Amino acid sequence: MALPEAVRDGPSMNPRLPDTAVRYCGRSFSAEEIERIRDLIDSQPPLNRAALSRRVCKELAWITPDGRSKEMSCRVAMLRMERDGLIRLPPPERGNGNGRRRPALGSASEPRPPISVPAGRLGPLRLRAVESPQDSALWNELTERYHYLGYSPLPGAQMRYLVFGGGVAPISWTCLN
Predict the structure, then answer these.
(1) What digits encode the pLDDT tens for the residues 35-63?
(2) Among the residues of the chain, which ranges form H helices?
(3) Which of 67, 99, 147, 164 has its CA 20 to 30 A from that of 110?
(4) How many other C-beta atoms lie within 10 A of the C-beta of residue 153?
């Protein structure tokens, strides 16, 4: 949603309120409601983001038809309000989880000279299921460094393996049922 330039360019600590209602996550927010959200953010003691979304839902009666709070929609709406310069949220306590976490690249996955022997002279290949946190970190690191798409968490049920034999390589299967 593009806001008028005057709203986006307001003072950094006290951004201007919009002249008309703004819509986020299927709900219109008036300037008065945005001011109420700002007051909740500034309340003492300061609320974390989860508690803030519960309070905003309660104060603004933002509920589903069956009477439950629309907390997740509220969090998304407040993140978008912050992005648009209407409010300033407290920093996330444990990160927001939306950022992509890249595995650290260490010496275990550093490039080595290519293996140039016929397959029959490579020796036996060993498959080891990824079961320990150390194996999981190695699998993630190898995938980040060598897979053309890099690392991203696999969806669904999965089986991950490390293949050894002249080197180490990650392989995986994912079941998307």
Answers:
(1) 999 999 998 778 889 999 999 999 999 99
(2) 5-8, 31-42, 49-59, 71-83, 133-146
(3) 99
(4) 8
Q: Of the candidates 136, 129, 133, which has an alpha carbon nearest to the alpha carbon of residue 163?
A: 129
What does each C-alpha distance from 80 to 12, 22, 137, 147, 149 come to in angstroms?
16, 11, 33, 33, 28
Burial of 17 (0-12, 13-18, 19+ CB in 10 A): middle
Residue with tokens 């320990």: 132
- Whether residue 142 contacts residue 136, with contact meaning beta carbons closer than 8 Å, is answered with no
Distance CA 10, CA 119 (A): 66
The rounded distance, in Å, linking the Cα atoms of 101 and 116 is: 34
Positive or negative, the CA dihedral 62, 29, 78, 155 is: positive
Do 47 and 55 meet the contact criterion of CB atoms below 8 Å apart?
yes
Give pLDDT tens digits for 78-93.
999 998 889 999 888 8
User: For the whole model, what pTM was predicted?
Assistant: 0.50
